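Morning!

This is the sequence you dropped in the shared folder:
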Amino acid sequence: MSKPKMFEKPIGVKDYLPDAVRKLRQIERDVLACMRRWGYEQIITPTMEFYDTVGTASSTSDQKLYKLLNNRGTTLVLRSDMTAPIARVVSSLLKEAEFPLRLSYHSNVFRSIEEEAGREAEFFQTGVELVGDSSAEADAEVVALAIASLKAAGVERFKIAIGHVGFLNGLLGEALPGRVEEQELLKSCLLGRDYVGYREELRKLSLEESVQRELEGILRLRGGGEICEQALQVSSDETARASISHLCDIWDALKAYGVSEHVLIDLTMIGDFSYYTGMTFEGYAADLGFPVVSGGRYDNLLSQFGRPAAATGFALKTTRVLELLGAESEEPEARTLIVYDAEGRNAALAEASRLRSLGVMTVVERMSWHDPLEEQAAGERFLAYKGVLYSSVLQYVNGSVKGGGLQ
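The structure's back. Tokens below.
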């Protein structure tokens, strides 16, 4: 294997230049402030976790985990999501805290990827976990907060699709009893939004016409609150019907929040079926093919850490929001350039300190007034600040301000 060139970096990671960082931090601040107003307090967990605890509990497949060994030979992982680390904290440091717990976070996460277009090995997420509440009201809260968070981030055009894992589990279990492998194959098609493949797999199963029609019919179960009523007529399975009733309750709560116009019920939505246990959802913004937010209910995870509890939450894909909005800040921050010579240094640095204490971005440069080339160079730098960067003022602080500088 050839040695990488000095300017190359691993596939799936990227550099963020100042404009992008400013915008990314702005999104982070605005979203976390929104979450705080809803009662969610921020938590920070380590970048590295033990593979045998958080790694195995994660929803990320083992092949996508970044693994490394510490000096004792213990296998560690770079965190691949924030849900499992927070479950660990809830079951340990917060084990005496009363439920429900409302926690928020902003972190970078890592997932090993193939060389696929648009996939990132390191990316940022901003999200929440609501732990200790199994109600439809809790599910509706996280969906409504996801909508509020997208708006706080500056995303204006988006749609949230919600479904329920239990509906498909019950429906497929009733239609294909004992045929687990075939059920999982159909779920995999739905998870990948491969509806053509889903129909093809159905045809291979040689089902009765009524069952075939029923399973194909779920592809049309997308819309508003009326879909709940239609879905109740599809299956007599108790699990499927209980799941739809729960989804109907979520829809009613979302109407009360006043956000149902942003929501679409999609009963093909299944999420990662090895992870979620109930309601799942994804949010798509206009002009972006990947989801910008996803989440759902995961009631089995905390039991792996010794504190069984219901939980629900979501993660906003912060770097995808940045891609959607563009890296440039809407209101670039102004800079003040203070140029000084040897005699004026004390006054110049004192003025710079005063401006910085007021929150003004201030740059200082030393020059000689007796050198025309240096003065010309200072003028050119000033023009560069003003025209290319974010300059507003050029000040000479040397005891004699030259008519306001080189403006």
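Headline: The chain has two domains: 18-325, 335-396.

More detail when I'm at my desk.
O.
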